[in-house]
């Protein structure tokens, strides 16, 4: 299979990803370079020659960010950090450098709809209703009887609202209770997530 850049049906005027072949890598299970039984960024680096030999155009990396791993990395505690079980930011930079040398693009699976409840943003948001990040997550008052504001259900089962005793409010979690939903109607949240995107784009 030829990469999109070498196929006559993909013109220069089209976005590179139209017709591109993208290889997904789930870091935890792809390749282990440290011998601890968990796949890591070093393993990905060592496997890039193999991936390139398949003729793909890009690699889609599943989350490798700092996380308590309640949802295998989809509960992010630091959007600009690499979880120690996977390696370091320098390891990621080496992946970028080698991937580009091999003609591969890198796509990072960013998780922008929610964070971990251990993220500093949520820790501040739940302190009270007046702090600078009070509106960074989806909060709602209980009904008169103390029950959740509605009957929305989590993707993982059960109600989608978690009670927080400090704020005396419910917070929305479409997945695990430990994955509170960000308030994407808040402009400051937009700006912070865009900063995250710029952080990773600046690495190459």
TrEMBL record:
Domain Glycosyl hydrolase family 13 catalytic per the UniProt entry, residue ranges: 24-204
InterPro entries: GH, GH13_cat_dom, O16G_dom_2
Molecular function as annotated in GO: alpha-1,4-glucosidase activity; alpha-amylase activity
SMART domains, alphabetized: Aamy
Keyword field: Glycosidase, Hydrolase
GO BP annotation list: oligosaccharide catabolic process
Pfam family membership, one: Alpha-amylase
Keyword Hydrolase attributed: yes
Keyword Hydrolase: yes
This enzyme's EC code(s): 3.2.1.20
Family matches, as PANTHER family: ALPHA-AMYLASE FAMILY MEMBER (PTHR10357), NEUTRAL AND BASIC AMINO ACID TRANSPORT PROTEIN RBAT (PTHR10357:SF179)
Protein name, UniProt field: Maltodextrin glucosidase
Source species taxonomy: unclassified sequences, metagenomes, ecological metagenomes
